[in-house]
Amino acid sequence: MKKKVKLITDPEVIKLMLEDTRRQILKLLRNKEMTISQLSEILGKTPQTIYHHIEKLKEAGLVEVKRTEMKGNLVEKYYGRTADVFYINLYLGDEELRYLARSRLKTKLDVFKALGYEFDEEELLNIMDRLLEKEHSYTAKISAEIEEKEEALKEFSNEDIIHAIDWLTMAELGRDEEAIELLRKLGEILKKE
Amino acid sequence: MKKKVKLITDPEVIKLMLEDTRRQILKLLRNKEMTISQLSEILGKTPQTIYHHIEKLKEAGLVEVKRTEMKGNLVEKYYGRTADVFYINLYLGDEELRYLARSRLKTKLDVFKALGYEFDEEELLNIMDRLLEKEHSYTAKISAEIEEKEEALKEFSNEDIIHAIDWLTMAELGRDEEAIELLRKLGEILKKE
Questions:
Q1: Is there a contact between B180 and A185 if contact means CB atoms under 8 Å apart?
Q2: Is B53:B21 a contact under the CB 8 Å cutoff?
Q3: From the centroid of its chain, how far is CA B116?
Q4: Are B133 and B140 spatial neighbours (Cβ–Cβ below 8 Å)?
Q5: ipTM, two decimals
Q6: Position A180 pLDDT exceeds 90
Q7: Other CB atoms closer than 10 Å to residue A188's CB: what's the count?
């Protein structure tokens, strides 16, 4: 049975999900169950490559065979995701993931600079890092709560559930004075003169 | 030439984008340029239906023919999006869109209730509505700024740009005392006893 929300906390699984082709496969499977040859055609990669990635995703419990169809003498397997939405928490991870989270933030700083913003890099990076850590930990808490109550949410669309998680995370931030202080500081630092 | 970010303000275009099949088409074209028959296979709709939707999306300036290929005697058109990311602002729209924005928020309240939260509906709805209005207006301002500076951002991925827009929106909210007050109120109202 397909779950709506699944919280991923295993650092190894998170790293595996972050690889480009696998991210694209997971994205495509959001819309529809697909065969290896369909994925291979859309992504412009060989079926062998797709097969290799699908095997990794299967081992990690992220995708599974949903149904099979006969096409002539061949059995075609249709793959799908084990949950509609995967939440990952980079901040529960190991050193490597913390490093990754920080280096992703650095790319954001480059975008800000390209747009003409000026700031103290280290200061901004620290504020963003701490805000993200708070956000991730609240989102993890809420999505765990939602995983438990799947049954009560089965009539709602994934989009509604994702937005509800966002709002509940915002509400948690609104009760966290330190988070509000960080938000104020972000506003002070990340602006045009 | 494909833009990275496009801000959509025309209420008619927004309404047209919100229809289910057209949303799915726009989603799929995010990953790759596709033909009508590919879209029809993945979405499980007739090519006639897809054609009809593609025409609407073309007229609205959201998709265009990117290239053609000969397949036997047939010319196959590959469609793609005119921008990688479309930002819509429901709050710049007409009465119908304001109504839609509010009714979408009501669905979120139903999710909160299903999760066991209790609150004054009208009060929560007003706070969420005002927060969203602020968020949309800041996002619109920032994405307009980004549309102008496309050239400076061409090395960055769409994901990086989207996240940068999110952060810049957060920074604007952090400078807006009324927004911070709304966030605090959200935290007070949307919680479990």
A1: no
A2: yes
A3: 29
A4: no
A5: 0.82
A6: yes
A7: 14
